[in-house]
Request: fold
Amino acid sequence: MRAVVARIERLMVAGVRPDDSYEERLQKASLVLGAGLITVLAFGWTGTYLALGLPDAAAIPFAYQLATVVTLVVFVRTGRFRVLCITQLVLMLVLPFVLQWVLGGFVESSAVSLWAFVAPLCATMFLGARAAIPWFVAFALLLVAAAVVDGSLTREDGPIPADIALVFFVLNVLGVATTTFVLLQHYLQALGRERARSERLLLNVLPEAVAERLKVSEETIAEHADEVTVLFADLVGFTAIADRTDAREVVQLLNEIFSAFDDLVDRCGLEKIKTLGDGYLVAAGIPTPRSDHAEAAADLALELERCLGSLPRAVESGIALRIGVDTGPVVAGVIGRRKFSYDLWGDTVNTASRMQSHAAPGEIRVTEATHRRLADSFELEGREVVEVKGKGPLPTYVLVSRRRPALPVEEQAVPT
Reply:
């Protein structure tokens, strides 16, 4: 069964080109699936009509099969999807009515013209809602025309037996329903996968709470928080490595380090704001408030140091980490209309950056505001007073270790 499914999937993407967009790939695969399904189902009609001694009727589904095979081969070789699409729509729309007229009308053909409805359905999926309107109008006109001429259509060899006509009626309804159901299932499942992928990409750019607000409203997203803790980490020595190392290796190393950091941030329930070159900015307490934001940021800082020391390539390269932490008010919001981002502003962010710049490699430098929040639970050592532009001299401390056991991660992110 898996081998059959694999072959079908390979056939569906046979005409897909590497530069096709996701929507183009989906449309091509869906049309090939629909055309292939109808072609397979047509074997039943062709064989049955031949068995009943109706070669003229059998020739019509066979003509569809032959035309479909030819157009699919041309499509695979040329990649011209629109030619395949228009050809299939015309065949799907016209041939069912021709078959109905050959068989003698609605009753004699068991309403085989139902198959023509697949044409406007496919037009909606592959050409768009507006472009599908003429195809639906054409279907409606052919249906009316079939009704007008129905009384004048007769069969020279007599009516088709009632039981056979009933079987064909069931097969026609079931065939149309099956084709429609399979196409919609495939299309909606593919769209669902793409929606989930887009959702993951959005959450890689924005915090979940902010992303949800952005999806339901286009209003400016901005908020003020009276007290959060900001962590700024910088990779010491990375710039020198980048100057003398192949670009691919540089990006791979940085990606390995920051991906490991991302996992730690997620486990701690904090929010990565952005990377700035080889800098890494994290916030605790925004956009989701939490009472232990300073403790959570301190735990993360210690874990980041341990994490970097566990990465062989980083250790071999001689990269060290220095971290600055400050606690205070910030303003946060989403900026930009294209390639938008969630960012932080305020003295707290600037001071955390200054703490980082004054830290020695392997050191976590914190301000007095953060020290007050951590003194009961962490070991800290006093350091020199630092002059910070706009704030004057500030006493600083170095975070050494945690004195009390940290709460489990699931108990840390408790809104205030």
Q: What stands out?
A: The beta strands are 222-236, 271-276, 279-284, 320-335, 341-345, 364-367, 378-388, 392-402. Confidence is low (pLDDT under 50) at residues 409-416.
